[in-house]
Specification:
The protein is an alpha+beta fold. The protein has five helices and ten strands, in the order αβαββαββββααβββ. The chain has a seven-stranded mixed sheet with strand order 1-2-3-7-6-5-4, sandwiched between helices. A three-stranded antiparallel sheet has the order 8-9-10. Strand 4 and strand 5 form a beta hairpin. Helix 3 crosses helix 5.
Amino acid sequence: MIRRLPASNGVRYDGADAASLERLTGAAHVELCSSVSSVLDVAHELAAAGAPGGLLVLADEQTAGRGRAGRTWHSAAGSGVWVAALIRPATSPEGGAFAIRAGLAMVAAVAEAAPEAAPRLKWPNDLMVHGRKAGGVLCEARWLGSRLGWIAVGVGVNVRGPVAMEVRETAIALDDVAGAATRIGVLTALAPRLLALAGGARTLDDAERAAFRRLQWVAPGGAEPGWGVDGEGALLARSPDGSLDRRVVPV
């Protein structure tokens, strides 16, 4: 059983209650939690119980937040935006197209809320700020037989530092470079973009692929020209001989 404190228990998020956050984000419902194992777990539980798309699960703290490939995500109380959006897409996306869209949504939201951060996207969906990781996306789909039931989109963004000592060399918080950044500001820029993912097409269009190219982060020494994604979100890398190497699994 997932342990959490529901919004009806008077939980507030930087002074805002669930009703205020619904108005600010446009969400159909905000499940506001003080502390939870993972916002993704709560989103799946609510979806399985019949919750509609357009719902947000927001927590002040995660005790077992997770990232891609089973990695732990540090989610201390008051330090970041830990949110999951419940999406019931109109069409089933192909390959990794949905994950790329979610990553682009996160980067665009941070660029709006904290422009000094100059955020970039490391394929497939890591938020990079000044060469260090400031956030990420984890998309988890659930199928009902052959039909897509829902996608829970979990986003974590480090807003307030300091980050955990064990990841300090590779991680960063937005307020390290954008002192005016706030959790409410990031959330209100992010939520409408996440909820809009429900209407996306099956594959990425030319504009979305161009947006990835424009916002992508390339490791020092990497050559940006020749890198991009295809319609299914796979990474295309230009080999020395000029051919394209298609990658679907991060290395």
